[in-house]
Design goal:
The protein has about 190 residues and is of the alpha+beta class. The protein has a single domain, classed as Protein Transport Mog1p, Chain A (3-Layer(aba) Sandwich). It has 3 helices and 10 strands, in the order αβββββαββββαβ. The strands form 2 sheets. Strands 3-4-5-9-8-7-6 form a 7-stranded antiparallel beta sheet, sandwiched between helices. The longest helix has 16 residues. The chain is globular, with a radius of gyration of 21 Å. The N and C termini lie far apart (about 60 Å).
Length: about 190
């Protein structure tokens, strides 16, 4: 078939030199549905920072952030881990005060849904759930309303802030629960 394409000029553009075709033995697994839902069959990989590790969905774009942070994204959904100093006051007070104020500076139209203590394998944490407008898409300018789960997870000297966001109406509850529960501290 390669000889036919090269000799007979079928007009097939493969992106490979001299019309050479790259064969795939198996198709690439789909990691999301057209609605943005992460399917139950998704494959998860582990990201390892200097002081923590966390799972993310295979195929999501990864970007390192300053201070050992990371952001993984796909379409309008994303997962982000940032590190901050461990608060000196009780965690619930921090989340409902400074944490919420920082969130309102970061997002547009924040509507707090709840803040509650939660147990994760990495330790006691506080989960802040809210809705907000996404940043404008750099190409289209489109914004969507996000449902955001933000976990504040204190370690020995630092605090991890895990942000899991997806458009309202997209069901990533189970996947995001798995990701949050996969977070571990490497060093404390």
């Amino acid at each position: 078939m390669v000889a036919f394409a090269v000799c007979c000029g079928t007009g097939i553009s493969t992106g490979h030199p001299a019309g050479v075709f790259a064969a795939r033995a198996t198709p690439t697994p789909v990691t999301r549905t057209s609605s943005g839902d992460i399917p139950d069959t998704a494959t998860y990989l582990r990201y390892r920072g200097k002081v923590y590790s966390i799972e993310y969905v295979e195929g999501w774009v990864q970007a390192r952030l300053t201070g050992d942070g990371v952001r993984m994204s796909d379409i309008d959904s994303f997962e982000r881990v940032t590190l901050a100093a461990r608060p000196s006051k009780p965690l619930a007070n921090f989340v409902n005060g400074l944490g919420l104020a920082q969130t309102k500076r970061e997002y547009q139209r924040v509507v707090k849904v709840s803040a509650k203590p939660i147990k994760l394998p990495a330790g006691s944490a506080t989960l802040l759930v809210f809705k907000a407008r996404s940043a404008p898409d750099p190409v289209t300018g489109k914004q969507v309303t996000l449902l955001v789960d933000r976990y504040y997870v204190p370690g020995r000297s630092r605090m991890a802030v895990i942000t899991l966001a997806t458009p309202v109406g997209v069901d990533n509850v189970d996947a995001f629960r798995r990701i949050a529960h996969s977070f571990t501290w490497s060093k404390r």
